[in-house]
């Protein structure tokens, strides 16, 4: 699932909690291309995504969050 990197995959909610933003904000970043995510097969009301922990770490090491 994580392309042979052994990287942990995080849900939208987990990323939102770590960044102290709303889930909707994380989804907006993903849809705009500001945050790279893996798209899972659509089930239920919302599209499901997973974000690599390394992607989140890179984002956190930067100086600004996506707008």
Automatic annotation (TrEMBL):
Source species: Ktedonosporobacter rubrisoli
InterPro entries cross-referenced by the UniProt entry: DNA-bd_dom_put_sf, HTH_17, SinI_DNA-bd
Record-linked Gene3D superfamilies: 1.10.1660.10
Coiled coil feature spans: none
Keyword DNA damage: no
Domain of life: Bacteria
UniProt keyword DNA-binding present: yes
Name this polypeptide is given: DNA-binding protein
NCBIfam families reported in the protein's UniProt record: excise
Key words of the record: DNA-binding
GO molecular function, one term: DNA binding
Limits of the Helix-turn-helix domain: 9-61
